[in-house]
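Re: [help] complex structure
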Amino acid sequence: MHDETTPPRTDEPDIYALEDAIEPPDLPGEVVVRKILDDLYHEMAAELVVHAKNCVRMFGDFHIALSGGSTPIPFYRTIMTDPAFRDLPWKFTHLWIVDERRVPFDDEKSNWGQLRQYFAEHADIPADNLHPMRGDHPEADVAYERELREHLAWREKGQDRLDFVLLGMGDDAHTASLFPNSPALRERERLIVMNDGEQVVPPPRITMTYPLINASRYIAVLVTGAKKSATLRTLAAEEKPPVQEAPIMGIEPVGGVMKWFLDGEACGGA
Ligand code: 6PG
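Output below.
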């Protein structure tokens, strides 16, 4: 007979409690934590699919801006190869770049050089919808801003913003190419600027600015790995670091969503 007082068995793992074991750090916006990297990529990819489809339904197209760096590469591989994400509406997608090094595409440091192997060569994005930053051109910032404004101008006023921006974060709390104490942090009007300075990791950069990123409909910040956990701890502390020292704290969506996607290691867990 079943005894109501029998305590629950403790020798079996409570699979539903696993995720709760990691306390999400106190960061601005929503925070998603998954212990396992693949779970994290799947979570973010599933949101991306829903969001992209909604934008195509509402506006007829979807404008996404992606970051370089090493963190998002396995995520890019997931969305390109996992059949679960096959219905991403690539044909109606415009691909933009969050930031770029001022080098030609065939330089190994070029973000576009890295990303094009996934998206330009394997996704069904029409060639005219691919928008690399010509980092090595002297007026690449002005040209890219013009290109962005022209494409978004097709939409009605107020809807002329990026739909999804994927950001990463450096150990020094930079995001995009918005580095601590660099001139680009002060930009309030322009959408794209060149950036350089003592704390800008060489080579010099070209980057989306706060006004453009913060106006986006959805900002995802993907941070993984133990190497980033100390920085996340600083950002989550009660006394928040100033934007000049931790540029990622300048990401404050105006009417959009900001979601952090963190794995267990980044949160200091195993
Ligand atoms: C870039 C990025 C940059 C990046 C961080 C984190 O082009 O490098 O846009 O902001 O996201 O530096 O880089 P990792 O993912 O390599 O740690």
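DSSP finds seven helices and ten strands in the chain.
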